[in-house]
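Notebook entry, structure prediction.
Reason for the run: the old model in the group folder had no record of what sequence produced it. Starting over properly, with the input documented here first.
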Amino acid sequence: MKKTLKKIVTVMLAVFVAAACLAGCSANKTDKANSATPDAAKPAKFGIVVQTGANGAFVDMKDGIIEEMKAKGYENAVFDYKDAQGDPSALTTIINAMDDGSYTAIFTIGTACTQALVNLSSDTPCFFCAVSAPVQAQVITDMNKPDKNATGTSNAIPVGDIIEMGYKITPKITKWGFVYSTSQVNAVDTVTSAQAYLDKKGIKYEAATVETSADVKSAAETLIAKGCDVIFVPNDAIVQDGVASLSQVCEEAKIPAYCSSATTVNSGCLATLAIDDKGIGAKTADKCIDYMNGKAITEIPAEVVGIDYCTFNGSIAKSLGIKTPSKDKIGYEIRIVNE
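New structure, fully documented this time:
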C-alpha cells in the first residue's frame, strides 16, 4: 500500500513539473514574439550612421528612413542617429560602438559607413542606403542574393543619361572636366563610368582630384584653364563641401556644371537626373520591414533605385543665360530649385 501511494505521489510530482515546464516554455515563446513586434515593452532599437551630415542628401535619406519605419508601425522604436562629420576615425568609433548586440538593425548611409560595418562581420544586420556600387565596394557579393548580413539600396548614377541631358540643355559642349576625391569609392566609380562613356563617343575630357574641400576651387580653375567648357561633379562628400566655390568659378567662366545629386544642384550646379533622397531612404526602410516581418537577409534582394526627375537650378541657369528645358526635350519631369 505504501509503495503504491509512493508511486502515485511520484507520478503526480512528475506531471506537475512537466506542466510547469510547458507553461514556462509557452511564456518564453510569447515574450520572444512580443519583443519582435512594434511597440513591445522593450521597443526595437535602430542605429543610423552617416559619414557627414554636411551632405544634405544624406540627411534627407535619414529622415526618409525614420518616417517610413514609423509609418510601418515602429512609432515607439528608438532611432540612434550618429554623424561622423567626415572624420574616418570618428566613423570607426561609432560603428564599433554600435556593434555591441543591443541594436535590432543598423542603417548605414553611403559607402564608407557600410564598408565599416560590413568589414566587422557583425551579427547585427546592415541595411545600406545610397551605395552607388555595392558589389564593387565589396559590401555585397550578389545584388539578388545578399550576403555578409547586408542588403539595401543603390543609387547607381546614370552617367550616360546625365551626359546626354547635358548636351540637350547646353549642346555646344566640347570638353568635359571632372572634379572628385580618390578617397570616395562612389565618386571614383562614377567618374570611371563617365569617362568610359565619353571614350566610346570620342569626346575629350580632363580630371582633377582633390584631397580636401579647400582644393575644389583650384581644381575647377585648373580644368577651365585646360579648355573644359563643362564640369561634372559625382556624389562626393568632400567635393560637396566645396561645391559652392566650384559653382562660383563656373559662373564667372560662364560654363555649366552638371552633377549626380539634387543636393549638389541646390548648392550651385546647373542640373542632374536625380533620385528622391527621402524616397530612397523609405525604400531602404522597407527592406528592414521585410526583415522584421520574418524574412532572412538572403531573401531580401538589394535594389537599384532609378531616376525620379531632373533637378534644375533656375538661378544658375539665369546667370549663364540658359533656358529651362521642357520635359519633352529631356524626357523627365523638371523640378526647378533656386528660382
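Summary: The chain is about 45% helix and 20% strand.
The old model has been moved to the deprecated folder.
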